[in-house]
Design brief:
The complex is a heterodimer of chains A (265) and B (296). Chain A has 265 residues and is mainly alpha-helical. Chain A is 78% helix and 0% strand. In chain B, helix 9 packs antiparallel against helix 10. Classes of the chains: A mainly alpha (265), B mainly alpha (296).
């Protein structure tokens, strides 16, 4: 609409073509792991010269991989259970603060996103080792909760920005307690944001490598920790099988989020 | 609290006020406390450990070593270079894309944004692995190039700085695009029309009206990408294959291999200072930017 008429018609298609190519660059590489996971070879080769399900068998029959998957799922769920209420409460409380306090508190809450995770990891390692909690699930969950907070906070703040405060005041004037207001007014209205924030918090924990590397150990090693070791030492094709399953989870999570958004609007 | 319900007695009213206060204002405290204990405290702990020598006495030897040894300087240089290259790639690839996407009608826009956001849902490790599949000796790219007869021997594409920057760009691009696109989408279309009606060419309008108006978003994206790139660990470790030593890897190594708490903490503190220096600079720059707008 703003392009000048002098540009030849052929050139007009170029931006769209470029946009499509960039989207392919963003999205396509991840999906390459799917054919790789059905490879029958021991080494990395694309396209694979033979096909099999052996890497999926390998994954599900290995106690190390299986226990890592269980740990990751558990840590992810606990991270959501902690970071979602904390972040939601913070985003709600922020509405009634003065601009200066809001900026300060918001800045502190964004810290986990800007401090390099290696520093959180080794710092947390030192702190936890002084209270003999290195390798414990608790330490890892609390670390992941801190890392997930900025995301939950941002998503929930955006949710509250669209939330009509009048509804809350109406409920209040009709005699509802704070508790009832949250259960019956605020939370149902923010359902879409809650789903998005919860999923993102889960994915944050599920994908987190560095903190898990230092803080989780032995029995409590998470999936990314084991995957990272497998990728760094030798390129184990089992990683392709896990990656495909994680990718499937990502697709489902994203569709769930899009659907919850659509329902809301 | 203008319109409180008629209280049955004093006690429920007090309770009501208390819960209102807790949920309404103190509600931010648990989150702040979590960040304080699990992010701020660990960082302060690092600062403390970095000024202790091996015997536990106060000393500046960890920092002295950082300055003396050339290997540390090289690692900082490489980290900054890789981060800078990543930012550059994001700018070059991202700005034309964002400019185009920002003008799309709502429906197409939503679809494109879903695709842009999709990588954020997939694990860093999955994507590092995917790039290995593409760039390896027997990987996708080398196989294709050889089949087409463009090259005779596989190119060394993986395990170097090129692979690292490519992988990091792939990860950072969506993060760059988010603030950039949102700034571009809020540019007032009337200004562009005004510029064109006064005879400016499309390119001229783009360069002297559209881009300057989107500058705040581009700046935010740039700073975010740069700061996050400084702390990258996983992607350089896997796609660099040991040939690209960045700060985070050095910290991890001096801790897990040599258990040198002081040395790793000192590097960490310097990294932290770099991150906050960049953030502070960007804040100043943004203030100047918005200040300039106001005086106009």
């Amino acid at each position: 609409m703003t392009r000048s008429g002098l540009v030849p018609r052929l050139l007009r298609g170029l931006p769209a073509l470029y946009a499509v190519l960039l989207l392919v660059f963003l999205v396509a590489p991840s999906f390459l792991v799917v054919p790789m996971s059905f490879s029958g070879n021991d080494f990395l080769e694309f396209p694979p010269s033979s096909w099999s399900l052996r890497w999926y068998r390998e994954f599900w029959s290995s106690p190390t991989w299986r226990s890592a998957a269980v740990t990751s799922g558990l840590v992810g769920l606990l991270t959501v259970a902690l970071s979602l209420p904390l972040g939601t409460l913070a985003a709600s409380a922020m509405r009634r603060m003065t601009a200066r306090w809001r900026a300060l508190a918001g800045g502190v809450l964004m810290l986990p996103a800007v401090v390099p995770s290696i520093l959180v990891a080794i710092g947390l390692f030192f702190v936890l080792s002084s209270v003999k909690m290195v390798g414990s699930l608790t330490g890892l969950v609390l670390g992941h909760t801190a890392l997930a907070l900025p995301i939950v906070f941002v998503v929930m703040s955006a949710g509250f920005a669209e939330f009509d405060d009048q509804l809350e005041r109406a409920a209040e004037s009709l005699g509802a307690t704070r508790w009832r207001i949250w259960i019956d007014v605020i939370l149902p209205n923010l359902r879409g944001s809650l789903v998005a924030a919860g999923l993102l918090a889960f994915v944050t924990s599920l994908d987190e490598v560095v903190v898990a590397m230092f803080v989780s150990g032995g029995q409590n090693a998470t999936l990314p920790k084991v995957m990272f070791a497998a990728l760094r030492d030798k390129i184990d094709p089992t990683v392709a099988a896990i990656s495909s399953q994680l990718l499937l989870f990502a697709v489902i999570a994203m569709l769930a989020m899009l659907l919850s958004r659509r329902k809301k609007s | 609290m203008v319109s409180l319900p008629a209280p049955d007695s004093r006690a429920p009213l007090a309770l009501h006020r208390l819960t209102g206060f807790v949920l309404g204002r103190i509600g931010v405290m648990p989150a702040l406390l979590t960040v304080g204990v699990f992010v701020l405290l660990p960082c302060l702990w690092l600062v403390w450990l970095s000024v202790l020598d091996r015997s536990g006495a106060l000393s500046g030897e960890n920092y002295a070593r950082l300055i003396e040894q050339a290997s540390y300087r090289r690692i900082f240089l490489i980290t900054f270079r890789v981060s800078f290259e990543t930012v550059l790639c994001c700018l070059v690839l991202g700005i034309p894309f964002a400019s185009y996407v920002a003008k799309l009608p709502p429906r197409a826009f939503g679809l494109v944004m879903a695709a842009v956001l999709f990588p954020l849902w997939t694990s860093l490790l999955v994507r590092a692995y995917a790039w290995l599949v593409i760039l390896q000796r027997n990987g996708l790219l080398n196989t294709w190039l050889q089949d087409w007869g463009l090259i005779d021997a596989p190119l060394p594409l993986a395990f170097n700085e090129f692979a690292t920057v490519l992988g990091m760009t792939h990860i950072m691009l969506p993060i760059f695009l988010l603030p950039t696109i949102s700034a571009m989408r809020s540019v007032d279309g009337n200004l562009l029309k005004a510029s064109e009606s006064m005879g400016a060419s499309g390119l001229r309008t783009y360069l002297s009206v559209f881009l300057p108006l989107s500058l705040s978003g581009i700046l935010a994206g740039t700073i975010l990408v740069f700061v996050m790139s400084l702390g990258f660990y996983v992607t350089p470790a896997i796609l660099g294959g040991g040939n690209v030593q960045v700060i985070s890897m050095r910290i991890a190594r001096s801790l897990s291999t040599y258990s040198n708490f002081g040395a790793s903490s000192a590097i960490g503190v310097v990294l932290l200072i770099c991150v906050f220096a960049v953030l502070g600079l960007s804040l100043l720059l943004r203030r100047r930017l918005s200040g300039g707008k106001e005086t106009k």
